[in-house]
Design brief:
This protein is an alpha/beta fold. The chain has six helices and six strands; from the N terminus they run βαβαββαβαβαα.
Length: 242
């Protein structure tokens, strides 16, 4: 922050954020995706946000669409423990590389397991992810940032996350087998477009998470499964076409 910049409009030190890095590289191998995650993470931590991070490939995340796959042929499934970290966060950012113009297999598996828990309910009787904010970061050296972000953000909102404006950012450099984000001379960390979009994404996530937390989450009217099943129709009127 410079002397010319106004202070932020609110405090964010009671918020929690989780970044899930869906690189294909196990720790401690250098992850270019982590380099972009760190840009957003530093802004959040500077303002007191509690930030948690998961490198998904370091964990045994089973294939499947049940909340716990350990009793369905996948002993040792770590997703239930990771899900607790997801639910502790007001902000979720999924980050990953582009391969063949699409999201990594690791990111797709994380989305599948998020989906596996989407039918669970919160204390207000809404689907579990209501009242939380989602965004994404994409890296690579081939085209596809917007395609990958479109898929991630659609998936998150379908599961119940609220998506703020401009909730994605990415870097691909020169299209082709060129330098990756953290490679010397890549230009990635200095790229103004990427830095601007990553900063805007971070603040939009913080602002919307602040609004939702202060409001006690998404209003629990018109979106409660138990109410619908009990016959409440929340002003829905089925047209009579006879």
């Amino acid at each position: 922050m410079t002397d010319l910049e106004p202070p932020p409009p609110a405090r964010y030190d009671d918020l929690r954020a989780l970044f899930v890095n869906c690189t294909l590289k196990r720790s401690p191998e250098v992850s270019n995706t982590q380099g972009l995650v760190d840009v957003s993470r530093r802004i959040m931590t500077r303002h007191g946000v509690t930030v948690d991070q998961i490198r998904a490939v370091d964990h045994d995340i089973a294939t499947g669409v049940w909340p716990d796959m350990s009793d369905r042929g996948w002993p040792g499934d770590e997703w239930p423990a990771l899900y607790e970290r997801v639910m502790a966060a007001d902000i979720l950012v999924l980050a990953g590389p582009i391969w063949l113009g699409d999201n990594s297999s690791v990111l797709k598996r994380v989305v599948e397991r998020l989906y596996a828990c989407s039918s669970l309910l919160n204390d207000a009787g809404q689907y579990a992810y209501y009242g939380r904010v989602g965004g994404c970061l994409i890296t690579g050296n081939e085209d596809g940032v917007k395609h990958c972000a479109m898929n991630v953000l659609y998936s998150l909102q379908h599961l119940g996350y609220t998506i703020p404006p401009q909730a994605d950012a990415g870097w691909i450099g020169e299209v082709g087998p060129g330098a990756s984000y953290l490679d010397p001379g890549s230009g990635g960390p200095e790229n103004d477009f990427t830095n601007r979009n990553t900063t805007f994404m971070t603040w939009n996530l913080l602002h919307l998470a602040r609004l939702l937390k202060d409001a006690g989450g998404m209003p629990a009217y018109g979106n409660q499964r138990a109410g619908w099943d009990a016959g409440c129709r929340y002003d829905f009127e089925n047209p009579d076409y006879r």
